[in-house]
Amino acid sequence: SDVYKRQVPTDAANHNRKSISLLVKQVVEKNNFDTNPPDLICATRGPGMVGSLASGFTLAIGLSVAWNKPLVGVHHMLGHLLVPRLKSNGTKPCYPFLSLLVSGGHTIVVLSKSLLVHEILVDTLDIAAGDAIDKCGRELGIRGNMIGKELEVFLNNHKDQWNQEIKFDMKEPMQNQWDRKDVLAYSFAAFNSQVKSSLKKYHNSEIPKDEKIVARMAHLTMKTIFKHLISKIKLAIKLNKDKMEGVTDFVCSGGVASNILLREMLQQNLSTNGIKNFYFPEPRLCTDNATMIGWAGIELFEDAKLTTDVGTTVFRKWPIDKILDVDGWIKNNE
Ligand code: AMP
Ligand code: ZN
Question: I want to staple 46 with a disulfide (CB 3.0 to 4.6 A). Which of 207, 261, 266, 315 is the partner?
Fold first, then answer.
């Protein structure tokens, strides 16, 4: 989670290793899994920090061996991508569909043609949108362990300040200019430096005492980050006309996706671009969670008949367009 990301990897891995066995022990006791185990074990296999991944994945292997139940090693981003399909009441996104996966670690636009075929249309050249939001929020004096969420609460308390005049220079990056046109990529590194230099230019490098002024700055910053997210989705749709044939469903998932302003801006801007149905998972399913990994594992097991060999390990890197291109998959034909 966000808390682990800010610590050094070994701390995070140690923390994970200590907590996971105790948590699983509780779950096993509560559900009597020792006498009546679940039918399927799903665990995240990558991408991410190997130390943290290994603690969960290795325990999952242990359970799979002990209970003699199949194991599925799940791709983290596939979890984010498929979680809106979990909802059984009502409609769910159908292939081909477009997703914006926007979290503290990733910012990608993905075109999903089927359960196993995904293409990344836009990726970030530097940091993720959530990371930029956290950095800008901190720069503007927002505190807490989930800055993005705190920032949303703060801005909701100051709705009357939104779009009010403010001396603050905030430009959307990667826009067309004389020497570059239609660059299909995100860049979020410059947002924090823009906040810094505006504070320097207009406020002696100090956070204004008046919360209302801070709210105007924060809103403009958030809005511009979200505009950047949307501009490149529109560009991806424009530059991939043939591939977008039949795409009417749109998913937005990942921690930042719980932001209501972002959801509204996406709906406003993309409905004129062929998107008819928007799927926003409920906030607790947007941030990293076990439900999404379990669900993606069930889809892989039931629809693609895939399981993972127990003699495998985790991956630091595992591109989502190469789900099957790794060792350890077992195709189960009935
Ligand atoms: P994840 O990496 O999926 O766990 O998501 C964590 C990231 O989402 C962090 O960068 C948070 O600041 C960001 N985030 C969480 N909630 C919100 C929100 N309501 N608005 C904007 N960003 C958020
Ligand atoms: Zn995530």
Answer: 315
